[in-house]
Amino acid sequence: MRSIKGTKLFSAKEIKEATELLREGKLVAFPTETVYGLGANALDEGAVKAIFTAKGRPSDNPLIIHIGEEEDIEDLISGRVPQLAEKLINKFWPGPLTLILPKAKKVPDITTGGLNTVAVRMPNHPIALKLIKETGLPLAAPSANLSGKPSPTLVEHVIEDLAGRIAGIVDGGQTGLGVESTVIDLSREVPTLLRPGGVTYEELLEELGEIEIDPVVKSKFADESKAAISPGMKYRHYAPQAEVVLIEGKEDKIKDKIKELITANVDKKIGVMVSKELEDSYLGSNVKIMGSKDNLIEISQSIFKLLREFDEEGVEKILIEGLQLEGLGLAIMNRLRKSAAYQIVEV
Q1: Is 34 annotated as a binding residue?
Q2: Closest CA to 283 of 259, 317, 252, 254
């Protein structure tokens, strides 16, 4: 085992040591099928407080509790598991779906951002599940990055942001989806999508028959007046140091607008993030390919990694091709709009 700035770096075979740190109330980052999470005992106020400190995260931003068995949710919520929740659990767990339900008294207010609801999910990653089960604890685990920066999909991203700030990191290689879990609020009369993610709106609608979408999900502007009832709803997120501009509209018009913006910003170091379908449209420019629009998982896996790469290269302004708000595209665009701090050009 090696350490960086005092943070221990574990392999997948060294989970036992990571487990001991978590039981001591310390912070350990670990891979999930979405992004790397920063874990701590969700029922330990001191450990949860340390998460906010390490990340520089606003204290009114609730955390998602990760569990190792489906039945573990029963200890964290008030009352019985509703039928709708059971239906979604049977269909999508383990997996990238977070359920919001009324919380049990044992869940500290600091874990829920002071809300009377709790967010719970069961991840679908062998390291995450093994860590949770061997710890025997529900783990609060927001993304393992500094608050506001692009989420970490590689262990190098976690090291860059949190080495020296947390006790340990479990290296599990690149994560799968690359964007965070879907969050659905089941505490309301009608199930409401609060954050799009790996489970799509269309998949949820097929299971539930009726579902509302919180206006924040598709918003093109930030509304800081509303309380955050789910991670990723209120504050600027996923943002690199460089200025980001998102261009939305029809493909041919997006292509021309990006060319126009490259020309208009010749005094700046420009980076361009586009789909494989526009790969050859900007010869001579610093272009990174997100993936094909025919394979949105490929794009979701790459967006945060590419934003960090542009920062490493000292790029000052990033121009990004917008996608359609369908399927996984809704989650990708939700993240890109926040990365751009809602600086959107419509064509």
Answers
A1: yes
A2: 259
Indicate whether 73 and 177 sit together in one domain.
yes
Residue 66 marked ligand-binding: yes
Local confidence pLDDT in tens for the 347 residues of the chain:
799 999 999 999 999 999 999 999 999 999 999 999 999 999 999 999 999 999 998 877 899 999 999 999 999 999 999 999 999 999 999 999 999 999 999 999 999 999 999 999 999 999 999 999 999 999 999 999 999 999 999 999 999 999 999 999 999 999 999 999 999 999 999 999 999 999 999 999 999 999 999 998 988 776 655 655 566 555 567 889 999 999 999 988 999 999 999 999 999 999 999 999 999 999 889 999 999 999 999 999 999 999 999 999 999 999 999 999 999 999 999 999 999 998 999 99
Q: Is 181 annotated as a binding residue?
A: yes
Do 192 and 100 meet the contact criterion of CB atoms below 8 Å apart?
no
157 is in an annotated binding site: no
Cα separation of 26 and 101, whole Å?
27
Structural domain ending residue among the three candidates 166, 183, 218: 218
What are the structure tokens assigned to 240, written together?
């690199």
Is 238 assigned a ligand-binding role in the annotation? Answer: yes
